[in-house]
Structures are given as structure tokens and as C-alpha cells.
Amino acid sequence: MEDPNPELERFRQQWREEVSAKAQAGSKAPKAPTRGPLKFPPVSQSSAGKAPKPLNDDDDHETFQSIAALPGGRVEDDVHGGDGPLRKEPQSALEHYEAAVERENQGSLGDSLNLYRKAFRMDHAVDKKYKNKHFPPSSFPSKPTNPNPSNASATVPNPAHHSLHGPPQTLKELTARCAGVSIQPAPPLIEGMAAPPCPVSSLPREILVQVFEEVAVSDVASFVRLAQVCKHFAFMVLTEEQIWKRVCIGPESGFGGMHFEWQREVLGGPLDDEILELQDLAIVESETPKEASPIPLTKEETTELLYSAYASSWLQMYRLRPRICFNGCYISTVNYMRPGQGSATQVTWHSPIHIVTYYRYLRFFRDGTVISLLTTDEPADVVRYLTKELQEAHRGGGSSHLPSAVMQNALRGRWRLSNVTDNPEANMKDAEGDVYVETEGASKKYFYRMQLSLRSTGKAARNRKLTWQGFWSHNILTDDTAEFTLRNDKAFFFSRVKSYGAGA
């Protein structure tokens, strides 16, 4: 009996060949440990006039497409989302993530969610690895910067033809390429007329030196920054010894404002004339010539004698010779830990630890006085109030409602630098470098004495650090001296304060 529908028979034959081919390929490939191959019921001859009905697997929530719905009458290749033979299960976190993305693109949100969870449990940064593998930064072309910015001069060469990935040019090539570049002068006030010359270029050198000297006296930092203007200014800043000599000898920031002898009492008042006369008599009327102390040199004489010790350069003397800065303050930050006590009402298995932080401040003045402060307040809340006026206003607990009430604990004192008499065995250059500070104590019968040493914090920052050498408490009534331990105390570092100006 002939088949009434030859096209259906042809389709069945084609379908059987495809199923047998897939079965042979699946037997050669490694078997997946999950579900077996898909099975279809045999097609009966009685249902020749009907198309085969697909099966629905409600347990796995998978839907088979109809044969008639597939283009060319092809059955879907893999129920599990594959494009051929069954693939083996993902092992690494990246494979789970890739399978999850594939399931999500196919619409199986439940399977993709489970795979995402497994991937992130195995590696919390698997998404970054997936991004680096499939979307590396090199796959996106970098956006070139603006080759000719709007604020560039017309004489600047246009680098638009440069390759972004080409080798960098050598220094010789860059020098030869930029040799013809010139700085365009200011346009003339009237079109067609010659542009006026630079006013500073027409100044005589003598007048320019006087201008630079005034700048250096007011602010040495501004004077040094003049070297960035042009080569001529840079040469004058580095080689003009007349300016640096004025800076060194002057009292503004040089050694004319340094004190190598006590100039004030501990409380800030002037020294009595009787004490000065007794000191002079002790020098002149010594018992034997061997015990007679040498007459101290003046600051000007000492500076002249030390000129040769610093390579006969006033600039080197200003940089290297120890000195105190008045346009800021010295701050010491102390941190240490101490054990605490547990709660009396709760049972705890650990003991608390307290981190204690406090600050020491020192501000020096040109008249030989100093302000010393020990507090837990941070520098931003203290440095602006380190003035003599606020110290007197808050003495004795007055004006405690003001923000500057931190000055209630400030101590008055005096300071001086070391000299040859403090260390007779050393030469004049090495004898300098120590700072002696004496301040009032916690009560009237005590005063504190500090010995600090000026050090450098690096190659560029000179004389910006004060390290501890000793700290003592002296009893005026009994003339006893006790030394404080310096286990937790740290060095002082200089910090410039704009509100101080050039210093007081």
C-alpha cells in the first residue's frame, strides 16, 4: 500500500538519519553525568496524516519546539542549550559564570540564577575575570587627547600627526625640534606699530638688585621663586651674594635675629641690669687667668668668622647654619597606647586598649621669648591662637568661653641657641645647633628646662626639625632638678602659618 503523503515520509527518513547521526556522535563523546539522551516515541503508520506531537517534561520545565515550527523541518539540537553533542558540566567559577550568561541569553533565568550563585560562591571576583577575558581594555580603542588645546600658542608645534603607540623621542630630537620655537611677545597697543619692549629688561642691574633685595627681606620664599621667571633672574638669585649677605645678617629671617645669650627672664620680662653687671664682673674679675672665660663675640663678628666655614658663600650659610624660624611654629605629635579597664557590670573576655594622642607646640619670637603649650587639641584649632595677646587674655582662666580658651594652659618662656661657651672643646661651627628653652612650671616654685637639637628633615628642608636632648624640672626653693623621661615624646617639626606673616 503506497503512502498517501510522500513528503511526510521523506521528512521522517531525514529525521531518522539525523537522530542516528547524533546518537553515534554522542556515543563517541564523554557521557555527561546528568540526564540521558532525549527519546521520542515511535511514529505509528496509523497516524500518517498527522504530524508527530512533541512531549512536554513538566518536571524540568523544558519546552520542545514543534517540528513544523523549525525552519526546514529540523528538530532542536540540544534540549539543554547546546549546539551539538552534550557538553560536560562546568568545573571552575569562570565556566559557571559563562554558562550562566549563556542560559540568561536563552531565557532560562532559573538556571542562570543557580549558576551565578555557584560561580560567586567559588570566586567572589569572577565577574571581573569574565570581563577581562571577554572584554579586555585593549579591545576598546583609547580616545586620543585634544592634539591642539585651545589655550596653546600658535607657535607650539601641532602633535596631531604623532602616533599614540610610537616610541618616545629622545632628548636630542626634542631639542632639535623645538630649537626654532619662539615666545610671541605681547601684541602692540596700536596695530602696525612696533611692540613695546619688556619693562624689566630695560632696568639697570643695580636697580634690579635693590628690588630683589627688598623682596628677599620681606619673604625669602618669594625671592627664590623669582628664579622661575627666566634664566637671567635664576642666575641673579643663585649668584648675587650681596642679597644673600643682607638676608644672613638681617634680623628678619637671618642670624641677626638669633640669640646666643639669654635676652629675657623666664616669665618674659627684661633681664635686670644688676644681673648683667654681675655677669660682666664674673668674666673680668676671675681668680686666675686660666679660669677666665673668653669674651663672647658679637653676632656680627661670629657671622663674619663663619663665612669661610660655609665655602665662602652666604647662600650656603643661610641654608646650612642652624637657625630658628619665626614665620610658623614647631609641632610634636605624640601617640602611645595604654591598657584600659573593663566594665564592672559586664563580663568581657578582652581588656580594652586606649590610644592616647596629644600635641606639644613651640612658637619662638624675635625678642627671645617663647610660648609652650601641651594639649590634646589638633593643630588646626590651636596654631592661630599662639599669640602673646591671647596668652595674657586667658591667663588665670579668663575668657574661657572663647574659641581661643586652649591658651589657658600656655606657658611663658625664653630661648637661646648654643655657642662656644656651652661646648668649649668644639670649634665655632660645630658648637652651634642646640636650642635651650626655659618655661614656667605647673606652679610658681617650678620651671621647666628643655634642650633640643636642630636637625634637617631631608635634602631640601634644613633646620626644620627639633629633636629632644633632655627635659628637666627645676625646683626654685630647694634648687633640685629632676629629669623627665622621653619614652613617648617625639621630635618637633616646623609648620609655616600664613597668619603669622614674617613672624613677630
Summarize the structure in words.
By secondary structure, the protein is an alpha+beta fold. Among the domains are: 203-261 and 296-321; 322-342 and 351-500, no CATH class. It is 27% helix and 15% strand. The protein has 13 helices and nine strands. Strands 1-2-3-4-5-6-7-9 form an eight-stranded antiparallel β-barrel. A hairpin with a 4-residue loop joins strand 7 (465-475) and strand 8. The longest helix has 23 residues, at 6-28. 13% of the residues are buried.
Outline: flat
| Rounded average pLDDT | 76
- Across the major sheet, the strand order is 1-2-3-4-5-6-7-9
Tally the helices. 13
Q: What is the strand tally?
A: 9
Order of helices and strands: HHHHHHHHHHHHEEEHEEEEEE
Distance between the termini: 124 Å
Instruction: Please describe the biggest sheet, giving its number of strands, its sense, and whether it closes into a barrel.
Output: 8 strands, antiparallel, barrel
Low-confidence blocks of residues: 32-85, 149-157, 159-164, 277-295
Rg is: 44 Å
Percent range of helical residues: 25-40%
In terms of DSSP E residues, the strand content is 5-15%
Secondary structure class reads alpha+beta
Domain F-box: 197-247
Biased composition (Basic and acidic residues): 7-20, 74-94
InterPro entries: F-box-like_dom_sf (IPR036047), F-box_dom (IPR001810), Hrt3/FBXO9_C (IPR045464)
GO cellular component, one term: SCF ubiquitin ligase complex
